[in-house]
């Protein structure tokens, strides 16, 4: 299972908070996993790109929707890759009518949304695995290691802000001990192919014995 793309948190019927995520990394991971013969389900927020036709795509809008669909589908899956950029905050109150401009500043009270990958990591069953992503602007390796532990991931992919909405990516893959096991620079498809090779060897190989 792959989570992909951004999620949206509506403030009113027409305005939302979101993340600048294209879904391209998720689509590339889906292609790589299909190439290796896996069945793939993609839980995707709203994106402009197409996923490979052989992937089963479950469209979602909000982070809560992504969590609910991911928890349901994860039951049928061997592992999950969290390539999505879910919106981390939502307004405490959602207006049912469009918020009218008054000329005065508008203050929004935001609360945190649930963390999809952390929830999957906490609830994974023996044999199931979770791979997270960490997009950081500073202290990339250290912060990725903290997230890996906090979210109970088996591997984590550390990338920088240049990954956003780009065709290329430059990532480091860290194992559960926090060691860098791969460093890849290339198109998102090249990066995804290398990541899937590692996942196959380290996690899927482990599961199937
Ligand atoms: O937002 P953060 O940098 O902590 O995200 C790291 C990982 O957690 C990514 O794999 C992302 O898909 C996942 N995540 C999530 N739900 C959130 C926030 C992040 O699944 N609400």
UniProtKB/TrEMBL annotation:
<dbReference type="InterPro" id="IPR007085">
    <property type="entry name" value="DNA/pantothenate-metab_flavo_C"/>
</dbReference>
<dbReference type="Pfam" id="PF04127">
    <property type="entry name" value="DFP"/>
</dbReference>
<dbReference type="InterPro" id="IPR035929">
    <property type="entry name" value="CoaB-like_sf"/>
</dbReference>
<protein>
    <submittedName>
        <fullName>Phosphopantothenoylcysteine decarboxylase</fullName>
    </submittedName>
</protein>
<dbReference type="GO" id="GO:0003824">
    <property type="term" value="F:catalytic activity"/>
</dbReference>
<dbReference type="GO" id="GO:0015937">
    <property type="term" value="P:coenzyme A biosynthetic process"/>
</dbReference>
<feature type="domain" description="DNA/pantothenate metabolism flavoprotein C-terminal">
    <location>
        <begin position="1"/>
        <end position="201"/>
    </location>
</feature>
